[in-house]
Amino acid sequence: MIRIAIDAMGGDFGPEPIIEGVIQALDEKQFLPILVGVKEDILEFLPQYYVDKVQFEEASDIIAMSDAATDALKRKDSSIFKAVELVREGKADAVLSAGHSGATMTAATLRMGRIPGINKPALATLMPSITKSKTLVLDVGSVTDCKPENLFQFGAMGEAYAAKILKIEDPKVGLLANGSEDSKGNELTKATFPLLKSLSGFIGNVEGKDIFNGKVNVVVCDGFTGNILLKTAEGAVSTVFDLMKQHIRKSLPAKIGALMMKKKVFGNMKKQVDKDEYGGAPLLGLKGCAIISHGASSSKAIKNAVFQAISYVESDVNTTIETLLEEANENV
């Protein structure tokens, strides 16, 4: 049975949505949650029926969002550190946290270690697309200052993840630039371009719009650019829906039309762009699985993050990453 170490104390709203998400996941799939945190606080939100379906790992310390990321290595009784240690010690197959993302990334990278050939891990996220398949974007915040070899490794990891987890046959990989022509980009992307050409799925430079139009399955960028892209996209989606609501309220025919489209059209649209559907972002490149969820994650997001961790563990994505890197390095 797959064992997932879950930071039950992290997140903006305490243990309640995290435990509720775990319960929802247990109702649908078989796995062993190892809930890390203050047991008494966890039990407040865990119905008696589920007590024998989970394990507990006591941790009295909680790393606050305002704390430094490096605190994760110093405060060894924190829920984040103890959850990561369970994976490092082989007592869990994956770690999931909605707590301090920087602390989780720091602890996971330095305690779990990296896959051979990976210099720095990448945080990956799924973005909506007009096609059935979502677009994987990485990095979205793990490495703000990248070198060409980092982006090349991100491309290999993204291609492997798209193939093994997203089940996309022959995924297309693009390098985010300010134009699709081979000559476009800054010094970083121009130096990265020839390295990525060794990947079988690389199609060249892509623009921001290509993330959403189905042209590509994987988009590679540095963490600074990717994080801005992610937050801009989230803001744009929220603004579009707010504007739609404003205009619908002003018109009776629009209200009637909206009512008729509420379930099939708007419902499907909301589901496609809802970040809770993805649950969390995998930190690719580690010896193991680490899923990082948003601090404001709902129970639905936690449930889907658990499913994401299960899919990751069940796949051989890490082995595929190693193989891709070896093959690509031979072709460089």
Automatic annotation (TrEMBL):
Q: Which domain of life is it from?
A: Bacteria
Q: Where in or outside the cell is it found?
A: Cytoplasm
The Gene Ontology CC terms held by the record are: cytoplasm
**Which GO biological process entries does UniProt record here?**
fatty acid biosynthetic process; phospholipid biosynthetic process
Enzyme Commission number:
2.3.1.274
Grouped into one coarse class, the protein's main location is: cytoplasm
Does the record bear Transferase in its keywords?
A: yes
Keywords on this record? Acyltransferase, Cytoplasm, Lipid biosynthesis, Lipid metabolism, Phospholipid biosynthesis, Phospholipid metabolism, Transferase
| Example GO molecular function | phosphate:acyl-[acyl carrier protein] acyltransferase activity
Q: Is-annotated flag, keyword Lipid biosynthesis?
A: yes
The record describes its quaternary structure and partners as:
Homodimer. Probably interacts with PlsY.
Record function comment: Catalyzes the reversible formation of acyl-phosphate (acyl-PO(4)) from acyl-[acyl-carrier-protein] (acyl-ACP). This enzyme utilizes acyl-ACP as fatty acyl donor, but not acyl-CoA.
Protein name in UniProt: Phosphate acyltransferase
Which taxonomic lineage is given here?
Answer: Bacteria, Pseudomonadati, Campylobacterota, Epsilonproteobacteria, Campylobacterales
What's the name of its gene?
Answer: plsX
